[in-house]
Amino acid sequence: MKRRFHIAAGASWFPFDQIDFLVGALLALELFIDVDILTWVLALSLGISLHILVNRIGFHLHFKTTPW
Predict the structure, then answer these.
(1) pTM, whole model, 2 decimals?
(2) What does each of the 68 residues of the chain score in pLDDT, given as a tens digit?
(3) Could you state, in order of their start, the residue ranges of all structural domains in the chain?
(4) What three-state secondary structure class fits 32?
């Protein structure tokens, strides 16, 4: 999908890079249990925040070459 919007490989595509896994996991979970709206909101907000935080920490500790 990034190529259709002319976004280079490896470039950040905020917030879609952060939420695709979470949405897929929550949709799969919905097949087995009823996930309420609060769980969706918390999972997405915490997931995006932690994704950004951990990537920034990894970048500053020189584990990553890009901050995303």
Answers:
(1) 0.67
(2) 667 777 777 777 766 767 888 899 999 999 999 999 999 999 999 998 998 899 899 999 999 888 77
(3) 35-68
(4) coil
